[in-house]
Amino acid sequence: MDVKSAEQSVHSGAAAKPQPPRERILVAARELFGRHGVHGVGVETIAEAAGTNKMTLYRHFESKDLLVAEYLRGLAAEGAAIWCEIETEHPGQPLAQIDAWLTRIANHVEHGNEAGCALAKAAVQITDPDHPGREVLDANTRQHRDNLIRLCRASDLAEPELLADQLFLLIEGSRVTWQHVGDGRPGADLPTLAAGIIASHRR
């Protein structure tokens, strides 16, 4: 999405209810970072798309790195919310929760609009361990792995930690591969591939 498209997204969202500058900046950053990557967009472009200026942007975010971290924090929060939704939909059914998560990821990866894909892209781009976004990415990774381990243990499957890592690598691989293959939709068969791995851990 180019700057004009990002501006239209910000303005369309503001048509019903005016957004404060900080929210407009985050909306524009999400659109542009998602399209061009966190290193492919400058603060001037983001400010322009948000209908503001660099001074206002820096008033709300002291640096671009902190803006990137907040952008990633928002994506991670969406992923955490999905876990809560799935638990509500399948209470007391750990295997069903795992399957529901895999299905959601497969559907979202296939259509290229899943927050996890943006997080995976950012994880490849942000290599500096001191970047504030790195902490967000690492915490998000730990949270997803911990959720998988918890559900695998609750399902009484053998070697739950190993199974969780296998599933996690399969999921992350499908996200990263989609970015390069695109229409090949490698994530589409994610539940089927995962089912075979899960079956191998049944006692």
Automatic annotation (TrEMBL):
* Organism superkingdom: Bacteria
Has keyword tRNA-binding? Answer: no
Sequence ranges of Polar residues compositional bias: 1-11
Name the Gene3D superfamilies for this protein.
Tetracycline Repressor, domain 2 (1.10.357.10)
Q: What are the GO MF terms of this UniProt record?
A: DNA-binding transcription factor activity; transcription cis-regulatory region binding
The ranges the UniProt entry gives for DNA binding are 42-61
Residue intervals of the HTH tetR-type domain = 19-79
Q: Which InterPro entries match?
A: Homeodomain-like_sf, HTH-type_TetR-like_transc_reg, HTH_TetR, Tet_transcr_reg_TetR-rel_C_sf
Q: Identify the stretch(es) annotated as Disordered.
A: 1-21
The UniProt keyword set, sorted, is: DNA-binding
Q: What protein am I looking at?
A: TetR/AcrR family transcriptional regulator
Per the UniProt record, the source organism is: Kaistia nematophila
